[in-house]
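dude i think i finally got it to work??
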Amino acid sequence: MAWLMLAQAIVAASGPVAIESVAQAKAMSPQALADVLLAPGHPPVDAADVAPLTMEAPPPPGAPPQFRVVLFTMPVDARENGYCERMRIDAAVIDPGRAATAKVSDVRLLHRLDGRCGETGKLEFGRYNGAATMAVIRDLDRLRLAARPSIKIDFYDEMPNGTVDVRYRDGLSALRAVRLDRVSWAGPASMGGSLPDEKRWKCARANCEQFGFYADGIWSGVVTREAGRITSVVLERAIPAPF
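look at this
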C-alpha cells in the first residue's frame, strides 16, 4: 500500500530540536512545526494540535518532561471515489529546552466523505476499516438524500430534554440530519459495538453484512446490507460516555 510506505518513511528528526516550550510550539505554523519535529521529506502538513487534552496515563516517575503534538497532513483525493484522505502523525517533544528531542509514536490514515479536498485546517476526518466500509457510507449518503429511499430506518433519540434544539419526527428526518462527512469511525459492526444488540436488526442471511459508524460526536448507527444493497439502518443520538 502506497500510504503505508509513506507512513513508514515519516520519522522524527534526529538530534536536538529547537523547541523550548508548549507556548513556542503553539505559536508556530503547522508546517514549521512539522519541519522541526520530522525528518526531511515528510508530506505537507496543514494542521496541528499542540498539547491536546487526553485520557492517557502520565509519564512514569523520573521520565523527562514532554508534551504531545498531533500533526495532520494536507488533504488529498483518496483512491475511493468521493473521499479525501490525510495522515495523522502522533508525535511528542521530549525534555523541551536546549536538549529537546522529538519522537513519532503513530501514523494513521484518515478519510472524509467530501469531494472538496482543497479545504484545509482541522476538518473532521475518521478511521474507516476498508474499502467496503467506505462504499457503504458513500451509498448511505446517497440514499439519505433520495426523495423516497426504500430502506427501513429505526431511530432512538436518547438526548436529554434541554440538550438539543431539534427533535426528529421519524427515522428519515434523523438520517438526513446526520453529518456523514464527520464520521469518526466506521467498520464492521462487530468491531465497533456502535449499538447494543437489542437495538439492531438481526443479520440472519448468508449474504447479509452489517457496518457500524460514529459521527459528529453524538450519532451512532448500524447499516445492514444484503446482496450488496442497503436494506435497513438503525440510528441512535446520544451523549457519548465520558471514557
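Residues 2-113 form one domain.
im so relieved honestly
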